[in-house]
Design brief:
Blueprint: E1 38-42, E2 48-50, H1 53-58, E3 66-70, H2 77-91, E4 93-100, H3 106-111, E5 115-118, H4 134-150, H5 154-187, H6 193-209, H7 217-225, H8 229-235, H9 241-259, H10 265-268, E6 282-285, H11 294-320, E7 328-333, H12 337-340, H13 346-354, E8 362-368, H14 371-374, H15 380-391, E9 395-398, H16 403-413, H17 418-426, E10 432-434, E11 439-441, E12 447-451, E13 458-462, H18 466-471
Parallel strand pairs: 3-8, 3-9, 4-6, 4-7, 5-6, 7-8
Antiparallel strand pairs: 1-2, 1-13, 9-12, 10-11, 12-13
Helix pairs in contact: 4-5, 5-6, 5-11, 6-7, 6-8, 7-9, 11-13, 13-15, 16-17
Length: 502
């Protein structure tokens, strides 16, 4: 019969001894952990592959519940995130999508009975000075501290007050960073140190003087235009009005632009339309924002990140002191490159927000197309921070990527063997035309390599269920025949399940 050129690996299956007792002892172990979201089957062995950052962190397989997904468009990154969100929600973890641009996640969140928050359509707004539930949370902590004092538990009272002070200080630092970033995106250049100091002093003045409502950017502008002594002191105007006006003229112009109903003001000039809830899945819908308006899109994403991170942190602190139910969140940051490419310094703000997720009951997944997208910024410091952001993610998931990308960029952030590099590169090849559907199906659709540290990668084939396909019909608009004349005469097009990938 001759010799076989290739010795194929027999498919492997997992089952209990009751199910496969007749096959015993013809069974083999597997190094793929059966923990977490069922993603699909191992491409070579057929063994089930389960993976998500929250479950693997709980099982002690990784040190931080973080995941980063890279892959070219149309190969299934979003579908993988959908799968993980769905499974984790079934396990009791709440998915939070901080910025849905296309949109890809609204149907899923609605199916979960979650909250859809729209921003940027001219009717819904997000006030970047809004502390959300923080004032109520601080009152809860202070009330609990007073009760502890009455009960004679001085240490508990001190811990509660310290938690309240810490949350307030953290919010104030995060708010300052967000306001500075939004102004810089509007101006398209970095602020001077004196301008940052003026904003910080003006925000502190608002905290001291406005107690009956939530201030908005127009109030910040008013303080800059009519400064109290605390603001004039940090401006180093030396008592000279002209000197102060010269230092704040550009900042004043920027804030005026943000308080108008156009540009960035279309999203941030009015009070928050719908506060974010802590007890259910949430998605911030940014699909109304023109994707060509990079500054507005990036500013909206930054604002969503800040609100989402602050809200999850707040729930964690309250839960630590028995003042709220313990909730675990899974935070989704998709299309990351759209924000990072908008201006210098955005990456530093993201790193500040996402560090130490395990200490606030949150896991996260970040996704973008390629490392080239993340590194397409003029500042070398930002490029290095972007590489660190990916490198420090405990789980890295690679879809199809150009071979040049694999060899020149991926090797900087993780160890990739030659075989793994060839595999990832092959998934980016163009597809062969399917005569039945008239579409060229990419060979890498649904194929991913899971990398954790120096361990060998796990190649997995992800297959969508019919329910998931309903959430992932990104290309439905292309299924409708384009014809001149009466559309009712156009033949119906057969739906192709392969188009459900994104």
């Amino acid at each position: 019969m001759g010799t076989a050129g290739v010795a194929f690996t027999a498919p492997e299956f997992r089952a209990s001894t009751n199910q496969i007792c007749g096959m015993w002892p013809f069974a083999a172990g597997s190094s793929v952990p059966m923990v977490g979201t069922p993603l699909g089957r191992h491409q070579f062995t057929g063994a089930p592959v389960c993976c998500d950052p929250v479950s693997w962190f709980r099982a002690g397989l990784i040190r931080n519940p973080s995941m980063f997904i890279l892959g070219e468009p149309g190969l299934g990154k979003t579908s993988v995130i959908h799968r993980i969100c769905t499974a984790l929600y079934g396990f009791g973890t709440i998915p939070i999508v901080l910025g849905d641009i296309r949109p890809d996640y609204i149907g899923m969140i609605r199916a979960f009975g979650g909250q859809v928050i729209t921003i940027g359509d001219g009717e819904h707004y997000l006030n970047i000075l809004d502390p959300g539930d923080l004032p109520d949370a601080i009152r809860l902590l202070e009330d609990a501290a007073r009760a502890a004092n009455v009960a004679g538990d001085v240490q508990k009272a001190a811990d509660l007050l310290q938690a309240a002070e810490g949350r307030l200080a953290s919010y104030q630092a995060q708010r300052l960073s967000l306001v500075v970033m939004v102004v810089e995106l509007s101006r398209r250049e970095r602020l001077q140190t004196v301008e940052r100091n003026i904003i910080a002093a003006a925000l502190s003045h608002l905290d001291d003087t406005i107690t009956d409502r939530v201030p908005v950017l127009a109030d910040l502008l008013e303080v800059v235009q009519n400064p109290p002594q605390s603001v004039r002191t940090v401006s180093v105007d030396r008592g000279d009005d002209d000197r102060y006006r010269n230092k704040t003229e550009q900042l004043e112009e920027d804030l005026i632009a943000l308080t108008q109903g156009v540009g960035l003001g279309a999203a941030f000039s009015k009070p928050t339309s719908e506060p974010m809830r802590r007890d259910r899945p949430v998605v911030f819908d940014l699909s109304a924002i023109n994707e060509d308006d990079k500054a507005l899109l990036a500013a909206a994403m930054l604002a969503c990140w800040s609100v989402g991170m602050m809200t999850t942190k707040l729930n964690s602190v309250l839960a630590d002191h028995g003042l709220a139910p313990r909730r675990h969140y899974f935070i989704v940051l998709d299309e990351l490159h759209r924000a990072l490419q908008a201006g210098s310094g955005v990456i530093d703000h993201l790193v500040l927000l996402t560090r130490l997720n395990r200490s606030r009951d949150s896991g996260q997944v970040m996704a973008t197309h390629t490392m080239a997208d993340l590194e397409a910024v003029p500042d070398e410091h930002d490029r290095e921070r972007a590489r660190e952001l990916v490198a420090h993610s405990q789980i890295k998931v690679f879809g199809g990527l150009p071979p040049v990308e694999v060899k020149e960029r991926l090797t900087r952030i993780t160890e990739i063997t030659g075989r793994e590099a060839d595999l990832i590169g092959s998934w980016s090849d163009p597809g062969v035309l399917d005569e039945r559907t008239g579409e060229a199906i990419p060979p890498g659709r649904g194929k991913f390599l899971i990398k954790v540290g120096r361990r060998p990668g796990i190649p997995v084939d992800v297959v969508l269920t019919s329910v998931e396909a309903d959430f992932n019909r990104i290309n439905d608009r292309w299924k409708v025949a384009s014809r001149l004349g009466d559309p009712t005469t156009s033949p119906d097009l057969q739906e192709d399940p392969d188009d459900d990938w994104e």
